[in-house]
Structures are given as C-alpha cells and as structure tokens.
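Before the break, one more example. Copy the sequence into your notebook; we will annotate it together after we see the structure.
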Amino acid sequence: MDDHPVFDPLAAIRSPTDALSDVYLTGTVFLDIIFTGLDSAPVRGTESWARGMGSSPGGIANMATALARLGLRTQLAAAFGDDMYGDYCWDSLAAGEGIDLGLSRRIPGWHSPVTVSMAYEGERTMVSHGHEAPPPEEPAPECPPAARACVASLEKGGQEWIGHAARHGSRIFADVGWDDSGRWDPADLADLRHCAAFLPNAAEAMNYTRADSPRAAARKLAELVPLAVVTLGAEGAYAVDSATGETAEVPALLIEALDPTGAGDVFVAAFVTGSLAGWPLADRLAFACLSAALSVQEFGGSLSAPGWIEIAAWWQHAKTFDDQDGDALRRYAFLDALLPSGTRPGPLPRAVPTIGFRRRPAGPAGTGRR
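Here is what the structure looks like once it is written out:
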C-alpha cells in the first residue's frame, strides 16, 4: 500500500500508546460505475454515448476513503458481497486505502449493490440496484468501538448506536439522505440531540426547517445541534456555531467540474478532519470546500478524494498563478503552516473504466503475443 496521507493532522493529540480509532462509520458500499462527458440528460428511446467512464467503490466508501486519504485512522463496518465486485471494493479499501475492515463482513451468495451515475450539466443522475444484506449471524454490538468521532446518516426512527457512541465519548457528525416521501418530518432528526454537528445540503436543510433560505435554515438547525453546516453547492458553505454564536461562510472555488459524485462526502470528511484537529471554524469550512472542489476534477466518488500532496499542489499553484481571487489566497493562508513538504509519494489510485484486466502470458522474449 502506498503511504497516501504523508501527513497526520492529528499528530499533536496522539500519544505513543494511542490505539484509538479516529473515525468509525457504517453503511452500504456500492460498486459505482460513472459516465461523464454527456452533453445532456439521456432521452427515452435513444442511445447516448459518454466520452468518459470510471469505476470505483461508492456509497459509504466515498467518505471512508476521503477520511483515510487525509490521514485519519478509519474503521468501516459494512457488508460486502462475495462476487467480483465485492472483491474489488474490499481490496481497494483495505489494501489500497488502509481502511480498517475488521468490523465488516463478507456474505456468501449476496451480490454487491451497484450504482450507475451519469454526470452532465454540472449535476448527476444515479440509478442503483441492490438487495438488503441479510442480518449478521451474531447481533451487532450496541455501541461501536471507541473512536474520536463517528459519522452517521440520520434515519427515520433513529439509530440506537448513535446515542451509545455519543455517551461513550465519540463526537457524532451527521448528514441525512433525500426524503423520497416528501414529508421532511423534523421528527426524523431526533438523533441530532446526540450530535456535535449536522451537515445537510441546502435543499435538505430548507425542507426540514421550512426556511426560505439556506442561511435561515442553518440558524434554525443550530437550535437543535451545537454546529450546523449547510452546503450551498456552487455558492460554497455556511455554518452556525450555536455554542459560541460564531458564523462563517466560504464561497466555492473556481474549478471546472468533471464529476460531482461523492463531493458531499468528501466535504464532510474534510470538515471532520479539521474539527478533530481543532482548527478555527472558518478554516474548517474552507478546507472542506477545497477538498470537495478538488474531488470533482476526477472520476468517481471514493477514488476522486484528494490527499495532502494534491492539496499542497493546489495551494502552490494558487499562489503562483492568477486563477483565483485575492480573497481565496487570504482565506487559505492557514495551509502554509499545515502542509507537508519534501515528501513525494506515488500517485493516488483513480477510477478506471475496467475493474480488472485478465493477465495475458508473455510471448517470446517478453514481446507479447500477437
């Protein structure tokens, strides 16, 4: 495995005997197949050709990979099929990214969930297929292993493990999925009482609070949770810290997007990293916006996540070339004291069109067969 992180943002708070995980998360791992370069949405009854394609682990793997690439010790509890897709996702996460899958399980006869994502006009449309994983042979523990933080997706009816983890000292960072029912019942956010931060997008925040703007929605959510962070898409992000009364807003960066799949997960991962490291709110928000912006320049949700070397390269470029506004240079000046120098690891794995090629035997003198 390549040493992707090259920098430990939590080095100052670790001890030589510290075996504590940084982040625990659980959810569904999908095999993502991403098409880009579509001029418009597919039209019924026609065939569309995409100019680009990539495959990578998706779903909860997006956030797990982003956390690991930023140097956090990441534990993922998920189900994996025993098909080739499951093999690929497991190897990519465990061997390729160094994610601890000790709490995950392989399920004989269960095929991996699959998502096809089509990116066009700055957005994406997804089609997914899968079956619910069978329950484990042994009941899952009521409380996950000790971790500095947990990332949870809020669900209707709540999840008992979130409260257990919070009472045992983990900081809970929560997001939420789209409500297909259209109810947007605030009661579905009951687990916010256990959370340190809530990070919905603008549409989710406004629907749950019935607010007429994302910023008003953030202020309402801050009445339910210590820190409310609302992502604003192309406009950046806005945060309200109800404990201190502080607010922060960071605009989006000027970056051309290839594939927005997983950008929200990368945002959350970067914000969690800055929060555990104790950075100021505005710096955490800026770092999350930057990480998400860098991710949309590559195919795929998980394997598009940036590492520290890529963040450092962007910062060096931003200081050298005049393609960002002056405010951006001032906003990201905190990176000078953070970024590693002198380390040149190999390139990060990226999404590729084909999951794996068959090995071909070499021909005479290693020339290959014709």
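Confidence is low (pLDDT under 50) at residues 364-370. Residues 263-277 form the longest helix (15 residues). Try to locate both features in your own notes.
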